[in-house]
Amino acid sequence: MTQASQTSRSDLVGCPHCGKRNRISAAARGVARCGSCRGLLPWLTEATDADFDAVAVQSSLPVLLDLWAPWCGPCRMVAPGVERAAQQFAGRLKVVKVNVDHSPNTAARYQAQSIPLLLVLQDGEVVARQLGAVPPDALLRWVEGALPPAK
């Protein structure tokens, strides 16, 4: 994969305010906003070993990193809470999911010996760590406690 293709991957995100679909580059910086109504968009994307630094480490927003695998039952249980975090903290948080089976270097970088492993990163540094399945409400409280105060 070339550098250009690593950073050009994008996701389609439906605006919760007006319903328009928006294309957001996974490696974009700043805050995700709707191109039509300018409302804040929930930012949930994926990364691999190849593009992790561009997508997560270089993010200008704090990142909720979800290290998971499709065969992991507790990972599937955590997924709805992770999605809710992207929605609830739109404009304050970027959520990045990394499949540890496809990205073993990223998993090793964050010492993921067990999954699900949730990390909050600020400027690429771990500021909070949560191991294991967490109910959605507890996950949201944990994320909020790890984020800088809302402006």
From TrEMBL:
Indicate the family of this protein: Belongs to the thioredoxin family.
GO CC terms: cytoplasm
Give TM regions: none
PROSITE patterns (UniProt xref): THIOREDOXIN_1, THIOREDOXIN_2
Tell me where in this chain the Thioredoxin domain is found: 43-148
A molecular function annotated in GO for this UniProt entry is:
protein-disulfide reductase activity
Q: Name one Pfam family in it.
A: Thioredoxin
Recorded source organism is: Catellatospora bangladeshensis
State whether keyword Cell membrane applies: no
Which protein are we looking at?
Answer: Thioredoxin
Keywords for this entry? Disulfide bond, Electron transport, Redox-active center, Transport
Taxonomically, which superkingdom?
Bacteria
Show the Gene3D superfamilies listed in the entry. Glutaredoxin
List the InterPro entries: Thioredoxin, Thioredoxin-like_sf, Thioredoxin_CS, Thioredoxin_domain
- Does the record's keyword annotation contain Transport? yes
